[in-house]
Amino acid sequence: MHLTTQIEIDDELWSFVKANYEASNYQAAILDSIYFISKDIRDKTDLDLDGVSLVGKALGGDSPLLKINNLLTENDKNEQKGIEGILRGVFQGIRNPRAHGKKEDNKETCDSIFIIINFIYNHIKNSKGKFDINNFTDFVLDKDYVESQEYTDLIISQIPEIKLFDTLTHIISNRKNLKPNIFYLIINSFREKLNNIQLEEMDKVFSQILQKTTEDSDIRLITSAYKEENWTRIEHAARLRIENKLLKSFEEGYYDATKATIKYGTLGTWLINVIPKMNMKTKYNLLLTKKLGSNSYNEVGYIFQYFSNYIIDDEEPSNYLLNTINNGLKKGDARFYNFIQFYFSYDSPAWTEKINEAYTNFKEVRLQPEYDYEDDDDIPF
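and the corresponding structure tokens:
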């Protein structure tokens, strides 16, 4: 049999008290209802208190942890004090006598108390707590978000330590609306706050996403958050899968400098986040050199537009790459000349001798790009 006033009380409250109420155990049902509201207050405030101490800390004072309204007017403040007072009375006048002794409660008494508890709970449920995970998401989605580590650290510092990982999980679940750079800043800030066990768990969560995702947006976000050294924290199988996917796009890369637009290979440009620590570096170097040697002006342009900082690393270039650069210089392609002249500016490394003749005798030839294109702005810069 349902409570005759059930339609007037909150569904969550009813679910919590239903078993004892329907068993006619009215004293236990009353205590259940007060425990329910206590737990909700503790969950919202992270307080480890009970009874009137919990009420006073959560709802009392000039700056309560739970605000049932904006506290702007005298009426607002009086309402806040009134709810605090009623709830104190609930603990002192209703809970304590039943918790410390036997009361012969009947259905009518229980129903009446439920209505009081429900009235209080509606205020608590809609109150503005000191920290709320759902409200926190609004901060990171703010259109005026300052894209700096300092600002992000200040935002993340507002999260209570006990709610750090839950908040991170919530942000990850709502990641699709975040810009990659903001996502990077947020994850970077969390790294400074989480303990080692939580960091490992975060790495596992992202590894699992990368192992299964078919969304390019996930790859953009997570390679941004795990760029360079952090890429090695992702599980090996997940890294191989994503690197392979990025390299497929990279191999198709096509950029029209005349129209300043990219036609193919948008996803591949996100390789720049992981190149320093990628597993498939050898394949990347082979594909890069192959594209530099392409007869397509726009394929070569894709490399110089997005990967000029990743053509030559700290190691000596392969003969395959040097021969390709040599051929580019001999063809009169100014892009090769402009790129390589840096290495002839100061103390030239020994390998420059292999292209010195072509560099010294360079004569620019005006090369014609292909003109077919489609706009695609989804690149990491």
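(Above: one complete record from the training split.) The CA atoms of residues 329 and 336 lie 6 Å apart.
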